[in-house]
Please model this.
Amino acid sequence: MEIEIISFGQIAEFINHQKIEVDGIADTDAFKRYLEDRFPTLKGMKYKLALNKNIVQQNTEIKNQATIAIMPPFSGG
Amino acid sequence: MSEKNIKNIFVNGPIAPAFIADSIAKHSSKTAIGGHSIFMGQVRKDEINGKFVSAIAYTAYEELALEKMYQIREEIFEKYPLKCMHIYHSLGTVKAGEICLFVFTSSAHRKPAIAACSEVVDRLKVELPIWGKEIFEDESHQWKENS
Model:
């Protein structure tokens, strides 16, 4: 299936906007494992995901053509 | 679900003092208002490891931020008897000394305006997906963290 990845803030410095074609990523927990494996820098960082513009609070199923945002801690204001 | 009136809060670059003055002036026709509360965030020239912050460059996940701001706005209007509320946040580069956030609440009497203004500022710092990159005078940078 296809997942679009977008990233922000400090994380955008090492994860580019990209589409990936992957199988076996059924939910957001699995996606985090995939990400941290591919981008080890992420392991030591605090971040949140947003799946199709909803902030992920608990493990959530990922469907084909999902857009997932990777977001470091917010620092507006 | 009823149609949502999602308002834009983002301004490119700094928020001009004249814009703020104009925003205040526009309320003279709203004669049920008896108190305004205004918060302005200004970029601070912090010293970090001997280097001074010269500007902050803001980016946001705009669609998610506006959706979240809509929810906050609804909750604040539910909680406080406000006449109106205006929120503006900069995107892009804002130099030290310039305004990057403007929150303006109005009510018949002062207390709801003051409480709502304070609560909105607290909530938007925690809940809106906005990031500030602190740029130093030598052009190096670090990512801001809200304390």
Remarks:
- The first helix of chain B runs from residue 17 to 25.
- The longest strand of chain B covers residues 82-95.
- The radius of gyration of chain B is 16 Å.
